[in-house]
Amino acid sequence: MAFSAETCVAMHIGNRAEQQDRVSLFAHPKRPGMMMAVLADGMGGHSGGAMAAEQVIMRAKQNFESYAPLHEAPQELLSSIIDEAHTIIKLTRFTSEKDPHSTAVTFLLQQGKAYWAHCGDSRLYYFRDTQTVARSGDHSLVGELMRKGRLDEAGALKHPQRNVLLSCLGSEREPRIEYGCADKLDAGDSFLLCSDGLWAYFTDFELASTLRAHTPRAAAERLIQLARERGGGCGDNISLVIVKLVAPPSSAR
Questions:
Q1: Are 212 and 129 in contact (CB under 8 A)?
Q2: Superfamily of segment(s) 4-252
Q3: Rounded to two decimals, what is the model's pTM?
Q4: Residue 199's pLDDT band (boundaries 50, 70, 90)?
């Protein structure tokens, strides 16, 4: 079944002094029907995190513009963005007094298929109606404890070390990159990329239901409003991208 994509990019500074998240959505300059979304949650003191996250966005845009799908696999594109951004972020440590780090989530929509990669605890969700088809795993201490069955979702949200990452861009270790793909997309499917400033306040079902019931812009506004309310004055930076697949008008099918 044919579909088109409705999208929205949104951010909120939360209760932080600085917005260190970065997020972007762009089409390929020469190849119609191809789209990339990228989100990065920066860390590293005053302006250091923002600088790291900005490098992820810049590398994603540059690599996507030169991407040739006939000669390069989607996974190669996604991994090159994270690996090269990681190297650049590490180099900035030698030219500044900051210690910049960042998470990264990259998403590619190409020829009716979706591909994604991530490092850190920013997430990608893939929903079909209100069902969670896929969700990226957090590269964090609590994420690892959950994978080992030693912690549940409720405990993870209250864990005192829930912000400790085991892998991110800019660290001494090479980034841990995990991949996902979906090759049977259909109208009604939706994708959400978001930082922990958003996902920490919602169940999967709440997120999926909101995306299903609203346009991307209305869904983004509602999710940010609820995250701010639930944050109780202590909310982190919020960033998100929504990509919602919808059936085209009958005349366009």
A1: yes
A2: PPM-type phosphatase domain (3.60.40.10)
A3: 0.93
A4: very high
